[in-house]
Automatic annotation (TrEMBL):
Reaction equation(s) it catalyzes: 2'-deoxyribonucleotide-(2'-deoxyribose 5'-phosphate)-2'-deoxyribonucleotide-DNA = a 3'-end 2'-deoxyribonucleotide-(2,3-dehydro-2,3-deoxyribose 5'-phosphate)-DNA + a 5'-end 5'-phospho-2'-deoxyribonucleoside-DNA + H(+)
Protein name (database record): Endonuclease III
Enzyme's top EC category: lyase
Cofactor: binding comment: Binds 1 [4Fe-4S] cluster.
NCBIfam families in alphabetical order: nth
NAD among keywords: no
GO molecular function, one term: 4 iron, 4 sulfur cluster binding
Cofactor: [4Fe-4S] cluster
Organism: Rubrobacter radiotolerans (Arthrobacter radiotolerans)
Amino acid sequence: MTERREQTERRAAPFPEVFARLSAEYPGADTELRWSDPLELLVAVILSAQSTDVRVNAVTESLFRKYRSPEDYLAVAQEELEEDIRPAGFFRNKAKAIQGMARRLIEAHDGEVPRSMEDLVALPGVGRKTANVVLGNAFGINEGVVVDTHVKRLANRLGLTENTDPEKVERDLLPLVPENDRTVFSHLLILHGRRVCKARKPLCEACVLSDLCPSSRV
């Protein structure tokens, strides 16, 4: 196992060059979710589970006009909220999570979205990935690296990790990624994963990392 790990480390793509090339390829990389305050971002990320940003943005366009505070999410029956978010999928579980989250915000945080990992992951429907998204994008706190399916896939293909469990992938990435770059690095990998390094058929011939990537088919 040690020998295999050493071989992987020797052939891993160098992070500084990966970051520099992706930054040049995707200047201004940011989340594609639409939001205007921390609560909107938190709700959008909860809705994004097993859905697409495009679908979530279509839902939140009207949702955020109707619900502007945690109290608003609790002022309606769960069934009404379910109908409002139905196109995002898994609407019953997500409505329950959003209302539970809103109740916790009111009871424990004076209705404000907290700024710590510990407090965020204590909210219903919020795991470490969601907390990292909110901390990094809403508050500029780069405590961790957001690991979604794209980040996990690209980190493995680039040889930056051998793990598939998101928390273990994040643990492997943290020493490699400077704190100030953690949020944008996730955005860069997500954009590259969506547009080039796709799950079923990566477009290696069009990839700016092909000469660095140990998984390249070029």
